[in-house]
From TrEMBL:
Pfam families: TUDOR. Residues 1-51 form the Tudor domain. GO terms for cellular component: P granule. This is Tudor domain-containing protein 1/4/6/7. InterPro entries: SNase_OB-fold_sf, Tudor, Tudor_domain_containing.
Length: 397
């Protein structure tokens, strides 16, 4: 233990040997280190030492120092400190480093729309990590090794499986379910396994190259995004839409003839009505809870400039509009926070001398999104009723 400012903190001695009775200590519950007088330290009791260490080491997801810089500049450190000082934060874990350190998006608790990571990019203090755009890679790759594009159903209601929540691009990745899609993918996975077993081990790996990856005893076709070092590779799962760091030894070359047997199955979509709140931590948490790794029905609202969908959970007696549930949760959270801060009052208590501030633009946008989602749900219900009435009419004759 180390005493400072009249209080005691748990600390780990980092110095091998004290110099002039000065040692370097690490505050295990806060994460910072400091030089101190050795006379201010005491042995920690066994009981107190059993409490878990509170400091969690993490790195900011999706950003890196500016071109030509190997580390965060003083300007970045100063600005970051100014933003987070004495502030309650929300951390959304996006991935993990090879050492098990969390890669997170950080949000101010009272401003959960834009991450601190993105703010630093917009201030020109950092730059985003360079990523290969999958669509561009596919279009530029030779047609002799790529399969045909996936033919999407013409109808506007699809049975889908939600395979990935992609917060970095505000989208969801899904796969079509059914005889011509998920069942064919199962058959294709068997072909991947056969090919993997007969292929020679990969000697060299190239960025944008196509390979078979063996992960947790399952076989996947992947595209290499980046080569991190001599052993670790970052890959994109062409049939699932997520990325992962894998060991080079897990990869084998993908035979072009095998690859062309089935179109890539991952479909990236946006959630209708939630575009403005897609990065909100509540949105992400709700999606993880309600949709990820589940089979849903996707209603196609728009096919212009990408697919925009409403997701429905149809596993219960009544269909649940997942988009509407999320929009409602975010709006209630926003209004509760505004009321706590005194920025929101119900319209019923407005007076001439104290005009109502009412909803913020964000809440109004959410209300509009909710209205649109409810209208869509009403249309869906009306459509189902009309279909049932038509069936009844047919049976009358």
């Amino acid at each position: 233990m180390y005493s400072t400012d009249g209080s005691w903190s748990r600390a780990e001695i980092l110095s091998d040997s004290p110099e002039n009775s000065v040692i370097n200590v690490l505050y295990v519950d806060f994460g910072n280190d400091e030089k101190c007088e050795s006379c201010n330290t005491r042995w920690l009791s066994e009981k107190i030492s059993t409490y878990p260490v509170q400091a969690i080491y993490c790195t900011l997801y999706g950003i890196q120092p500016l071109q030509g810089e190997d580390d965060w500049s003083k300007d970045v450190q100063t600005k970051f400190g100014d933003i987070v000082k004495e502030e309650a934060l929300i951390a959304v874990t996006q991935s993990y480093t090879d050492d098990g350190i969390c890669e997170v998006d950080l949000y101010l608790k009272d401003d959960s729309k834009i991450s601190i990571n993105q703010k630093l990019i917009e201030l020109g203090l950092v730059r985003p990590l360079e990523e290969i755009v999958i669509e561009d890679s596919i279009s530029e790759a030779g047609s002799d090794i790529e399969p045909e594009q996936l033919k999407l159903p013409e109808e506007n209601e699809w049975d889908v499986y939600i395979s990935f929540i992609n917060q970095s691009s505000n989208s969801v990745v899904l796969r079509l379910v059914g005889e011509n899609y998920s069942e064919k993918l199962d058959e294709f996975d068997n072909e991947l396994e056969k090919s993997y077993q007969t292929c020679s081990t990969v000697c060299s790996v190239e960025v944008d190259g196509l390979y078979i990856a063996l992960i947790d005893e399952l076989y996947h076709r992947v595209r290499v995004l980046s080569i991190m070092d001599d052993t670790m590779i970052e890959v994109y799962f062409l049939d699932h839409g997520d990325t992962e760091k894998v060991n080079k030894d897990q990869l084998k070359t993908l035979d072009p003839a095998v690859n062309k047997l089935l179109p890539y199955q991952a479909i990236e979509v946006s959630l209708y009505g939630l575009e403005e709140i897609a990065t909100n931590p509540t949105t992400v948490d709700k999606l993880l809870d309600l949709a990820l790794a589940k089979t849903c029905v996707a209603e196609i609202i728009s096919r212009d400039e990408g697919l925009s969908v409403i997701l429905y959970d149809t596993g219960n007696d009544e269909d649940v509009n997942i988009n509407e549930v999320i929009a409602t949760a975010v709006m209630e959270e926003t209004e509760a926070r505004m009321m706590a801060q005194g920025d929101f009052q119900p319209a019923s208590i407005s007076t001439e001398t104290s005009p109502v501030k009412g909803l913020s633009n964000k809440s109004k946008n959410l209300e509009q999104a909710l209205d649109s989602l409810k209208i869509s749900q009403d249309k869906k219900v009306t459509s189902n009723i009309n279909e049932e009435e038509e069936v009844e009419e047919k049976w009358r004759f």
